[in-house]
Amino acid sequence: MATNYKFKKVKAGRDHIADNFHNALSLSDMAQHAHISPYHFLRVFKDTYGETPNEFLIRLRVAHAKKLLITENHSVSEICEHVGYSSLGSFSSLFLKQTGMAPTLYRRKLWALSAEPFCFPAQAIPACYARHFLGK
């Protein structure tokens, strides 16, 4: 467990990731905002939050992409760029790994549940049903 001093530094790095997840971020950038070395930042971050900074970054990007896929009519490529990925293939494979389905299939399944376009299906059906339908 990190001390309070280390926790504040790692939290500053984590906040930087959360505020800038749509930009290209390197471990050095993240650690620089925490004012500690990159490898020490990596170890303390994993010890504190149970995931690496990159895993946290991927989780944020995929969560934002899921929201955009449902609420916006942008192409998957545009959403890929909007959440900070330059490669559609990398984005699609990470999205598939995180959610269990490709971005296009995710969009189709959730749009099919909603009577209104660009609307979360949770507004039309109970969230527990949507989670069950998606296997979450």
Class inferred from helices and paired strands:
mainly alpha
CATH-assigned fold name: Arc Repressor Mutant, subunit A
**How can the largest sheet be summarized?**
none
Secondary-structure element string: HHHHHHHH
Question: How many E-type strands?
Answer: 0
Instruction: Please mark out the parts with pLDDT under 50 across 5 or more consecutive residues, or reply none.
Output: none
Kindly report the name of the CATH homologous superfamily: Homeodomain-like
Mean pLDDT: 85
Query: Span between N and C termini?
Result: 30 Å
Helix content: 55-70%
CATH class: Mainly Alpha
What is the general shape? elongated
Rg from Cα: 17 Å
Give the helix tally.
8
InterPro entries: Homeodomain-like_sf, HTH_AraC, HTH_AraC-typ_CS, Tscrpt_reg_AraC-type_HTH
GO molecular function, one term: sequence-specific DNA binding
Keywords: DNA-binding, Transcription, Transcription regulation
Pfam family, one: HTH_18
